[in-house]
């Protein structure tokens, strides 16, 4: 009988203690602002030809056609990344949006994405400026993984 | 037949413990886990609790220690698995080891006590 009472007391104490412990750590984190490391590429300067009084032939230098970088969206929903793997070109940007009720992260290594905690509705964008395969995962829920394959 | 009853009761212990654990994980968003986390816990928890029962039935004389042995073994092995999976080592691995232990121990103790004849080997108590 004593054992039962002691057990119940211990269990209640641990549950109450655990509740307050986790309650303390569960204060809603401030909303994560949209982080972007996107850099604006300098526009190629177009040199205006100098007008001379008697031009014979003026060639206007035309800038090389710039390859427009694309933006890809990956949503985080039901404890999974909507696209397990995506293939992009160097300079493209990927935007992750957390549509889950749980917080998540987008964390990779080797210069890959590192979002910090994304609360519900939070977004994170990362521009891939080097080629290779970037694996990433949610550090809070390590079973959530994804990868970005960047080619030239 | 007696083994089927034992396995069934161990399954009940782990299932109730998992429901308690689900409640704890629902306290706040940071602790939310996907559904497979809980189904995995029931399946592997039952397996490891059964292994613990088979090992410790030779040494355990009371329902209290039988429930303790099964709960401790199951929670330690499950937490080791979560650690290998790279869950947060302190919060979700170490601290939750105690949560899981008590989640399994509470139903485990009462069920082992109610079904002492099934869980405690008479030869050990003599």
Helix-strand blueprint:
The complex is a heterodimer of chains A (152) and B (126).
Chain A (H helix, E strand, L loop, with lengths): L1 H24 L9 E2 L34 E7 L2 E2 L3 E5 L3 E6 L8 E2 L14 E5 L4 E6 L7 E7 L1
Parallel strand pairs in A: 1-7, 2-5, 4-9
Antiparallel strand pairs in A: 2-3, 5-7, 6-8, 8-9
Chain B lengths: L1 H24 L9 H22 L6 H22 L4 H26 L1 H4 L2 H4 L1
- Shape descriptor of chain A: globular
- Rounded to the nearest angstrom, the radius of gyration of chain A is 26 Å
Report helical residue fraction of chain A: 10-25%
- The count of helical stretches of chain B stands at 6
β-strand percent of chain A reads 25-35%
Mean of residue pLDDT of chain B? 92
Q: SSE order of chain B in H/E notation?
A: HHHHHH
The largest sheet of chain B is: none
Helix/strand order of chain A: HEEEEEEEEE
Fraction in helix of chain B: over 70%
Using only C-alpha atoms, the radius of gyration of chain B works out to 15 Å
Mean of residue pLDDT values of chain A:
73
- Give start-end ranges of low-pLDDT stretches of chain A: 16-56
**What fraction strand of chain B?**
under 5%
**CATH domain fold name of the domain at 67-152 in chain A:** Immunoglobulin-like
Taking the alpha carbons of the first and last residues of chain B, their distance comes to 24 Å
The CATH class assignment of the domain at 67-152 in chain A is Mainly Beta
Judged by helices, strands and strand pairing, the structural class of chain A is alpha/beta
User: Most extensive chain contact?
Assistant: A-B, 25 and 24 residues
Spatial order of strands in the largest sheet of chain A: 1-7-5-2-3
């Amino acid at each position: 009988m004593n054992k039962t009472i002691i057990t119940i007391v211990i269990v209640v104490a641990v549950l109450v203690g655990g509740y307050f412990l986790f309650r303390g750590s569960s204060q809603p984190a401030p909303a994560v602002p949209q982080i972007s490391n996107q850099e604006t590429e300098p526009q190629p300067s177009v040199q205006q030809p100098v007008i001379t009084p008697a031009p014979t032939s003026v060639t206007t230098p035309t800038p090389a056609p710039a390859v427009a970088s694309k933006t890809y969206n990956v949503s985080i929903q039901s404890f999974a990344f909507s696209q397990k793997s995506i293939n992009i070109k160097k300079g493209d940007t990927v935007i992750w949006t957390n549509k889950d009720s749980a917080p998540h992260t987008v964390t990779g290594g080797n210069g890959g994405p590192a979002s910090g905690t994304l609360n519900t509705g939070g977004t994170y964008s990362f521009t891939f400026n080097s080629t290779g395969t970037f694996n990433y995962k949610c550090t809070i829920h390590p079973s959530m993984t994804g990868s970005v394959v960047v080619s030239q | 037949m007696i083994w089927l009853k034992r396995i069934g009761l161990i399954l009940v212990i782990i299932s109730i413990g998992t429901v308690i654990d689900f409640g704890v994980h629902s306290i706040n968003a940071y602790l939310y886990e996907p559904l497979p986390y809980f189904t995995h816990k029931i399946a592997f928890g039952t397996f490891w609790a059964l292994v613990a029962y088979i090992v410790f039935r030779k040494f355990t004389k009371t329902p209290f220690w039988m429930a303790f042995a099964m709960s401790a073994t199951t929670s330690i092995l499950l937490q080791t698995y979560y650690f290998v999976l790279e869950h947060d080592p302190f919060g979700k691995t170490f601290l939750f080891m105690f949560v899981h232990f008590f989640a399994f121990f509470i139903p485990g103790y009462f069920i082992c006590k109610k079904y002492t004849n099934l869980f405690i080997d008479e030869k050990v108590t003599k």
